[in-house]
Amino acid sequence: MHGRQRGFSLLELLTVMTIMAILATVGIVGYRRHTRATKEAVLKEDLFQLNHCLEQFRADKGKYPTSISALRDQGYIRDIPVDPMTQSKDTWVTEFESPDPDSPDAEVGIFRIRSGSTDVGENQIPYNEW
């Protein structure tokens, strides 16, 4: 005589696997959203600090720097930060001031630094417009 076999039916296994897949999907989406929010917070802080250093440089020297590396070389920042959206130090976009028509030979400097990423942020504004 054989006893009744105990175990899980195929339907029970499929139900458990479906629930696990849903939970994993929710977890991955939440993780990605959190990672994106963290990168955006770092970008906001980096942009604030870099642009603040531009203004400090101008206040101290009477002109804007001609490159981001000048901020590092003159001691305004320890190192050029990595753009969290592009994962590179070399993709920062610099906006130069307009040349002075009375001094056409004068150097023009950087008055704003932006991210090099064209991706759109959580606020629906491209990162390179922040």
UniProtKB/TrEMBL annotation:
Give a Pfam family name: N_methyl
Is Transmembrane helix among the key words of this record? yes
Q: Which GO terms describe its cellular component?
A: type II protein secretion system complex
- Gene3D superfamilies reported in the protein's UniProt record: Glycoprotein, Type 4 Pilin
Q: Which GO terms describe its biological process?
A: protein secretion by the type II secretion system
Residues spanning the membrane: 13-31
Q: Which SUPFAM superfamilies match?
A: Pili subunits
Q: Which UniProt keywords apply?
A: Membrane, Methylation, Transmembrane, Transmembrane helix
Please verify whether the record's keywords include Cell membrane. no
NCBIfam families named in the record? IV_pilin_GFxxxE
Q: What is the protein name stated in its UniProt record?
A: Type II secretion system pseudopilin OxpG
